[in-house]
Design a protein that fits this description.
Blueprint lengths: L1 H36 L6 H9 L8 H18 L3 H16 L5 H23 L3 H17 L3 H17 L3 H17 L4 H21 L7 H16 L19 H19 L2 H21 L3 H21 L2 H16 L2 H21 L3 H14 L3 H17 L5 H10 L11 H17 L3 H17 L3 H17 L3 H17 L3 H17 L3 H27 L32
Helix pairs in contact: 1-2, 2-3, 3-4, 3-5, 4-5, 5-6, 6-7, 7-8, 7-9, 8-9, 9-10, 9-11, 10-11, 11-12, 11-13, 12-13, 13-14, 13-15, 14-15, 14-24, 15-16, 15-17, 16-17, 17-18, 17-19, 19-20, 19-21, 20-21, 21-22, 21-23, 22-23, 23-24
Length: 581
């Protein structure tokens, strides 16, 4: 017994001596590091060297964790090496998790990490999407390590969103497939699970809409709408998740509801269900107004601007130009309140003004607005949309811009290397080529392009493109003297335009029906069509005069800098109405 006691005492003495030695070298290195850090000027490189020298001694966990924390803090505050800072802070947090009653290191590491992550997420705001994707990948892997499949799904879905923004579709598809599996397999808080499903389905729906596939998206959109209805019936669970890493939340329920309204509006507008788009826009804007009374979150203003952008396009189609112009002014006011909002939506704002200018026949202003929008965007789909509309302006202007027009048409040639994957935009490019061939008198070529538009628009229920193609084909057949075939095109064009409703196509169709029936000797039908044409003309003329008389009409001359703060009143319309009549 005496021998065992002596051995134990000897071991204890050795351990104490070792601990004392460890403490002495550690304190010495720590002292040197602090000396270099507080020098004037600070000698950060030498400070880091001293702290790094701790690890070869294989110190106890407490010293190892604290040294990682000190290194992470020095690198975060005094250098630009955020990657190493993050690595040391994450190690400090992980090691401190294994040590009882070591909350000071654990909480300080977590606090610094949260600051670092917030700083690094600014990569997204600064359009450094590559770095942002890398960081989200790190977050997903970290969530997997700590056993949080919920937070892993949030990171992966966020990464998928950025990859969609970058149009990296080959990377998006397997990632979304993995996300779908994780979401379906995760068993946890019902609201958290449904919120993951909403995030996942929103990405799927927007992916389809970006591709112009408004028919293919319907099953996903229906699932999304059912999902948000389920969430609205669930009560928030006060029980906190057992895993602290599951405490993240994507969006509040109320914000998700607005988001689902928004993607429904986007779908309705693309498909040509404009009354449905109006209905959901009204619901969404009403919800936004309530939320903004209590919540100043910037995302609410973003939602509002995107909703207004879509409903403005609907107004221009349905013949409500004055209302559209006032809503453009409203977008300007929202952008004046937020430089970042204006930066993100300036190109869209000038595009909307260009579309308004076309609707009131101010073609020089339309050209200026579209050209400004092209200068401000690097978004491929928006670029193709603007070029398509600018080409249609040049086509209507005749021979003034032939060289520029040919260049634009070549850049959006749907028969060759079309710049984007959007089904809808490619179909629109065929229509513009058909319109150009029609104005050139090359009717067979025009028919080929327009039939391609019809085939593509019918495949995805692009109702407005279908109506435009039918009425233009009807016009071509009328010019060629084929009245029967012309009637077969114009009648369904009118029916579809009435359903949308598209005021310009109704005006065009009614004029053709009037002339067709007159040529065929159908006096009563010709009179009825003439009356319809007169009614549409009067409605459009009245709206035209009202819009051009608004002080906001002066926005058509704004092409540089932030939106103007105020508008001077107009004496009256100063544009030609020939294109309307």
């Amino acid at each position: 017994m005496a021998a065992q006691a002596a051995a134990a005492a000897q071991a204890a003495a050795a351990q104490a001596a070792q601990a004392e030695a460890a403490e002495s070298w550690y304190l010495a290195l720590l002292g040197f590091a602090e000396h270099f850090r507080t020098s004037s000027p600070p000698k950060i490189r030498l400070c880091v060297h001293c702290l790094q020298a701790v690890f070869p001694f294989k110190p106890p966990q407490r010293i190892e964790a604290r040294t990682h924390l000190q290194l992470g803090s020095v690198l975060y505050h005094h250098t630009k090496n955020s990657e190493q800072a993050r690595s040391h802070l994450e190690k400090a947090w992980l090691i401190s998790q294994q040590i009882p009653q070591f909350e000071d290191v654990k909480f300080e590491a977590a606090s610094l990490l949260s600051e670092l992550y917030c700083q690094e997420q600014l990569h997204t705001l600064e359009k450094d999407l590559v770095s942002a994707c890398d960081l989200l990948g790190v977050g997903a892997e970290y969530a997997r390590v700590v056993g949080s499949e919920y937070t892993r799904a949030l990171f992966l879905l966020s990464k998928g969103m950025l990859l969609l923004m970058e149009r990296k579709l080959q990377e998006v598809h397997p990632l979304l497939t993995l996300c779908g599996q994780i979401v379906e397999n995760w068993q946890g808080n019902p609201i958290q699970k449904e919120s993951l499903r909403v995030f996942f389905l929103v990405l799927q729906v927007t992916h389809y809409l970006d591709a112009g596939q408004v028919k293919s998206v319907k099953p996903c959109l229906k699932q999304l709408q059912q999902c948000i209805q389920t969430i609205s019936t669930l009560h928030d669970d006060e029980i906190l998740p057992s895993n602290p890493a599951d405490l993240f939340h994507w969006l509040p329920k109320e914000h998700m509801c607005v988001l689902v309204y928004l993607v429904t509006v986007m779908h309705s507008m693309q498909a040509g269900y404009l009354e449905k788009a109006q209905k959901y826009t009204d619901k969404a804007l009403m919800q936004l107004e309530k939320l903004k009374m209590l919540d100043c979150s910037p995302i609410l203003s973003s939602f509002q601007v995107i909703l207004l952008e879509h409903i403005i396009m609907c107004r221009l189609v349905t013949g409500h130009k004055a209302t559209a112009l006032q809503e453009i002014s409203q977008v300007c006011q929202l952008c004046q309140q937020s430089p970042r909002l204006f930066s993100n939506h300036a190109a869209q704002l000038h595009t909307l003004l260009g579309l308004y200018c076309v609707s009131v026949n101010c073609m020089d202003n339309a050209e200026a607005q579209f050209t400004t929008a092209l200068r401000l965007t690097n978004h491929q789909e928006l670029w193709a949309f603007i070029v398509t509309n600018l080409a249609s302006v040049y086509i209507r202007e005749g021979n003034r811009h032939q060289e520029v027009l040919y260049s634009l048409l070549e850049r959006i040639n749907p028969d060759h290397s079309f710049p984007v994957s959007s089904h809808c935009l490619r179909a629109a490019a065929f229509y513009v080529r058909g319109l150009f061939s029609f104005f050139q008198g090359r009717y067979n070529e025009a028919k080929r392009f327009l039939r391609e538009t019809l085939k593509m628009s019918n495949a995805e229920d692009l109702n407005r493109l279908t109506a435009c193609s039918l009425v233009l084909l009807g016009h071509i057949f009328y010019v060629l003297g084929n009245h029967r075939e012309s009637n077969n095109m114009v009648v369904p064009a009118m029916q579809l335009a009435s359903k949308i409703p598209d005021m310009s196509v109704q005006l065009w169709s009614s004029a053709l029906l009037r002339d067709l029936n007159k040529a065929c000797g159908n006096a009563m039908d010709a009179h009825e069509a003439a009356q319809m044409h007169q009614n549409f003309s009067q409605q459009l003329l009245q709206d035209h005069i009202e819009a051009c008389s608004l002080p906001e009409h002066n926005l058509i001359t704004w092409t540089d800098g932030p939106p103007p703060l105020q508008f001077q009143a107009q004496n009256g319309p100063n544009t030609s109405l020939a294109s309307l009549l």
